[in-house]
Amino acid sequence: MAYSGTLISIVCGALWGAVSMMVTGVTLTLVTGAVAVPQIGAAALAGMLHALILVWRGGSRANLQTQLAPLLIAFVAVMAASFAAPFALPLDVISLWQGVAILVFLAALAFANSVCLNGVPLGAMSRYEREVVYIRMLKGIGFVFFTIVVALPFYVMVMTSLKSQQALLANPLDLSIDLTQGLFALFRSYVELFTQYNFGTYLTVSAIVSVATVILTLLFSVPGAYAVSRLRFPGRALLSRSVLLIYMVPAIVLVIPLYAVFSQLGLRNSLTGLLIVYPATTIPVALYMLQGYFRGLPAELEEAGLMDGLSRIGVILKITLPLSLPALASVSLYVFMIAWNEFLFAFMFLDDPDIFTLSRGVVALNSSEVPRQHLMAGAVIATVPVLVIFLWFERFLVQGLTAGSVKG
User: Fold this and answer.
1) DSSP states of 54-71 as a string?
2) pLDDT tens digits for 180-198?
3) Mean pLDDT for the chain?
């Protein structure tokens, strides 16, 4: 295949032209509230032309770029006019959002083609070179797909929470925001959540329960993980391998017996019951994560501490734990996220709105008496804190999960 580089550039350019146009059209629809009809065929042709320019620019036809550039510009102008049609605007008028959409499309297309076709020759390509281009294309498509899957629900949730009841009833699919209505009107749903629906109490209860769960989990899992990784006792290997067996039992199987037992003991409809169940479900995974990290720590440091007169508890407090801060941070973050987002046990055990956790409180908003924008605002409030904490401690999470994976 003497011109395989050219053929691959055509396929890659058409693919990224279509993908960039679809994503831009969907984004334009979400931002403006008016249905944009992306011209997929025109975008694919523009992508092919741009890809050919990139590949042929370093080839033997030095003047081909100057010949195709005016054609590409004229073609982009035709696509710009096609953006105006769904908005019932004259073909010679381009609104601000349409111009921004065209610039975003061109930037996305240029970036995608440049990354995928970097180093692609004009003529024949080896099998390895073709596979590199295919892998780049698949990685890019996967990145775009999963970004949309993750970002689109969150965008719908946020935009819905910022709309008024009248706007939602008029057009539930319109996710555009009117910034001229003022900040108070824009964030009215959030203000009413805290003033009318007791949402501040839900946040406080969830924070208390989550932090208490982290503390109780660490109090039990740190000594347990240290014992499994350092001490020798009968059944140590069996305990180390079977510590995660509790996760083989679905929570829905445990909730009914626990509901009956807690009702008889007077622990139902109390935070004490949650603080018994939550650590019981998080301690095994915390112990499993910590024991791998503890095994990776040099035992000679602890032996030196024992020889200097430290007790075993002193060794743990002064040597092991300071060296294990990344693992402790990652375990704490993981346990906090579990306790913050847990719903099933909170839904079954809690009946008093004064002690509802955040997830239980959000479900309480899902009724015909509560407007939908309030429900979405509650979901945003429940998501943002743990998202910020996760992004802040992400480096500790990755470091803690991988530091004990190898020995030495």
Assistant:
1) HHHTTSS-TTHHHHHHHH
2) 777 777 888 888 888 888 8
3) 79
